[in-house]
Amino acid sequence: MRSSESIAVASTRSRRGATLIAAAVALLAIALIIAVPTAANWWQVVILGVVEGLTEFLPVSSTGHLLIVSDLLGFEGSLGGTFEIFIQLGAVIAVVGFYAPELLRQARGVPHDPQVRRFWIAVGIAFVPAAAIGLVLHSWIKAVLFSPPVIGVALIAGGLVLIAVERLPQRAPAVHNVLHVSLRQAIGIGIAQVLALVPGVSRSGASIVGGMLAGLDRRAATAFSFYLAIPTLGAATIVDLLTSLDQLTPGDMGRLFLGLVVSLVVAWLSIGWLLRYVANHSFVAFGMYRIIAGVVILALVATGRL
User: Fold this and answer.
1) pLDDT over 80 at 13, yes or no
2) What ranges in the chain are assigned the alpha helix state H?
3) Which of 83, 183, 238, 262 is 20–30 Å from 164 (CA)?
């Protein structure tokens, strides 16, 4: 009986996987059909979508990587940073899709499960600090901080912090289940996420480190960072798009859609990989990568290549 059940479960997962792959291929095909005729630089959009999908949930700063890669490619569809921010919506959709069964279960439990209600209150509390400050300083951040030197320095500083957090003596984590995050811990994570308003710091890195320092184990801190991405990236995308509508052309819409779709597909794959990785590894490798990337960026700035 157990063998039959295992076969049935494996078969169901296989069919689901095949369906998701088919849907991803179809969505990519539609996006290419829309974008290619109106955007000669569609291949650059694909590269940037891959970069976003790979880096959004890793503690390495997706915005910083996107801005640097855009400069190196000579990408002319940035729209003052709007493109790089908008395609993060693909990562939001990926998170919602990845956690869809759990999100539906939680939605059904909200009326009668106080733990679920408290968890989403905690997510809301963690969302508020960065949302409020980001809304007030939105224009200044894009005008002043979206620059290679700032990104390079932030990558190095963030890398040193990641390594320090992993190497320094730590108390035993008090929270192993993401649903058990307290409101006080959520406030700490929210304050940490404010630092991610600086390109190069990394939203996921700041929230994961903030979670670990607040008493979450690495896996719970990573999972909370994923949930927190839903309101944080969703709100950032909407605000930036609304403030940039007057700059958009029909060709821009095709690029935005293609970048979103590519980032969605790649981010979906990245989420599962990162959860498996953090179960057995530290973030030291990411810290070392950040330092190397930051040094390379500053060297390119010094030589006039950025």
Assistant:
1) no
2) 2-35, 42-55, 62-73, 82-86, 88-98, 100-109, 114-136, 138-140, 148-167, 183-194, 203-214, 218-242, 250-278, 284-302
3) 183
